[in-house]
Design goal:
This protein is an alpha+beta fold and 206 residues long. The chain has a four-stranded mixed beta sheet, covered by helices on one side. The radius of gyration is 17 Å and the shape is globular. The two termini are 30 Å apart.
Length: 206
């Protein structure tokens, strides 16, 4: 039996839920984090001492960190689908997934935190402007890359596309002045039409 702890509107939880949908795995989800609490209990911290979501438990195995969970799910249950059988293509999917966290999220975080989580009179708009500039520069890199192929790792949808699509969704929702990125826009149109995105990732930002 597979169980996921985390609120459905969490970016990191959505990555995992989308991955589970793509692979076709059954699971139970338990609300945790923010208004639901749970993640500050001793029982939860026994699974993840950081008190963060998502947490996955499969039988007696416990794992946290969304990208680690995605890798685990694809190695154990989705090899040849979300995780390409070709080792080099799999490495490229991994590369772009990690780039989403090290580069895109670093720029997105101040934009999201200020525009979604912070009252208007307390927002740091300088941080928002700097984040938007970083996002534009970084997404132009991805746009250039996607001119050569339909998905980030090549011809097929992989785990590398999932976190980037979720961050693109937030960029489009929050930032109105964006550079022209036709290849990126076409890619996002394609990936955001997938059943897992529609089911788990298209809700209003909170």
């Amino acid at each position: 039996m597979m169980t996921i702890w985390g609120r459905a509107n969490s970016l990191n939880v959505q990555k995992v839920l989308w991955g589970l949908e793509e692979i076709g795995l059954a699971y139970e989800r338990i609300d945790a984090g923010l208004q639901f609490g749970v993640n500050d209990t001793a029982a939860f911290k026994a699974m993840n001492p950081n008190g963060l979501v998502p947490v996955l438990k499969e039988d007696d195995f416990v794992l946290w960190e969304s990208h680690a969970i995605l890798r685990y799910l694809t190695v154990r249950h989705g090899r040849g689908t979300l995780l390409p059988a070709d080792g080099q293509v799999a490495a490229l999917a991994d590369q772009w997934m990690d780039w989403s966290g090290s580069i895109i999220w670093a720029h997105m975080r101040p934009v999201f935190q200020n525009l979604v989580r912070t009252p208007a009179d307390q927002r740091n708009m300088q941080a928002v402007a700097e984040g938007c500039a970083g996002l534009a520069k970084s997404f132009l890199i991805l746009d250039e890359h996607l001119k050569k192929q339909p998905f980030v790792a090549g011809d097929d949808f992989t785990i590398g596309d999932i976190p980037l699509a979720l961050l693109m969704f937030r960029w489009v929702a929050l930032v109105k002045e964006r550079p022209d990125t036709p290849a990126l826009d076409q890619w996002f149109k394609n990936v955001s039409g997938r059943a897992g995105f529609v089911k788990h990732c298209a809700a209003p930002l909170t």
